[in-house]
Structures are given as C-alpha cells and as structure tokens.
Write a structure and sequence with these properties.
Distance between the termini: 25 Å
Shape: elongated
Strand order of the largest sheet: 3-4-5-2-6
Number of strands: 7
Strand content: 15-25%
Structural class: alpha+beta
Length: about 210
C-alpha cells in the first residue's frame, strides 16, 4: 500500500504520528514550511440588498493603502436582485493583511466595526453609504494552523521524497514557484502520481515470497 498526504506540511507534522518516524530533515522542513494564507484575515459583510449589482458594479475591488487588499462578490447562488429567495446571502467578502493580531486584541463589536470601516472606505464613492448591514464576520486563518517559524520557502526538497518508500507529500505548499495556487496543487499531484505509479509497477514485478 501507498499513502499520499495532501494536507499542509505543518498540520501533518502536528497531527499525524509516523511509524517509522520521519527523518530529521523532513520533520524540520515540515515544521518550517508556512501554511499558505495562514496569516490572512478573511472578512465578509452581509447586506440587506446587493446594492453594488443594482449600480452595475461587480463588487470586485483591490486596495494598496488599506488592510483590506481584495474584495469580491460573495453572494450565495441564485442571488439575482430581481428574483432572490428569502435565504439568499447578499455579501461582499475580502482578504485583510497584517491585522490579525490587532483585531484579536479588540472587543468583538469594535473589531467588527474596524472591519466594516475598511469596506466602507473601499466603496466610499460607489454607493455603500446608508446601506443596511446585516452582519460582519471575520476569521483569522492562523487559527487553522499550529504555531511555527516561517523562515524557509515553499517546496523544500525533503518534501519531494517518499517517507519509508510508501508515503508521499503533495499539496500546494510542497511545490516551488507555484505554491499557494491551484497550479501548485495540481503540479504536486502530478509529480506524486508519477512516483506512486513507478513504485507500484516496481513492486508488481518483484517475485512473490516462497512459503516453506
């Protein structure tokens, strides 16, 4: 049997026990490989109506001066203004950079007000003023990962080697150049698939053990 592990390396190291144990170099590389986006805050603001669509806007925006660096229309399916069912969630969502610790130090309502303020600033001249806000939510993605030192790049060579000849590591963090993107995940899958196929073919040609 073979195993392909696709979870982020640091999460694997923190939550999986290996027998035999990992090589020291592999374990160190896993501990020091960042989990993609784990320092980012994802935020969403839900509105009574999709006011941006009503104004012919996509809801997409980018900022180089605010922590809210990217925004997109996060409205749930079937959220057309003319025929939206009652349970449709009209919302804008975005990524906030470098403010996770700041938001965690604030009381909940104050933190949500801070996040809402960034959305208001991004769309200040595009009709957001006076819109009814139903909720503001945010999630600091670092809480999905264990603590580790982020001091090496993605795609450490040790992660391209099979453990004990039967366990391979895949996932976007194991690739160089394309780490953090779907392309990185796909390339890692292709790389591991080639190695697994070669290993299984080699095992299938080995003579069966003799029973005395």
């Amino acid at each position: 049997d073979v195993v392909v592990v696709c979870a982020p390396p640091r999460e694997v190291l923190a939550g999986v026990r290996f027998e035999p144990v990992l090589r020291e170099g592999t374990a160190e590389a896993m501990a020091r490989t960042p989990t993609w986006m784990d320092g980012v805050v994802k935020a969403a603001v839900r509105f009574r109506s999709p006011w941006w669509r009503e104004r012919g806007l996509s809801g997409a925006a980018f900022s180089t001066s605010l922590p809210l660096v990217q925004v997109w229309d996060n409205t749930s399916p079937h959220g057309e203004p003319s025929s939206a069912p009652a349970d449709v969630q009209h919302s804008l969502a975005g990524f906030c950079m470098g403010v996770g610790e700041e938001l965690e130090r604030l009381p909940g309502e104050e933190a949500r007000a801070r996040v809402l303020g960034w959305f208001l600033e991004v769309f200040r001249d595009h009709g957001i003023e006076g819109q009814q806000v139903l909720s503001v939510e945010f999630k600091h993605w670092k809480h999905a990962a264990s603590d580790a030192t982020h001091d090496i790049s993605f795609g450490h060579p040790s992660l391209a080697e099979a453990h004990a000849g039967r366990v391979w590591f895949a996932g976007t963090e194991t690739e160089r150049g394309t780490s953090g993107h779907m392309e990185g995940a796909v390339r890692s899958g292709e790389r591991v698939a080639r190695s697994v196929v070669a290993t299984l073919e080699a095992l299938s040609t080995q003579p069966a053990p003799c029973n005395s």
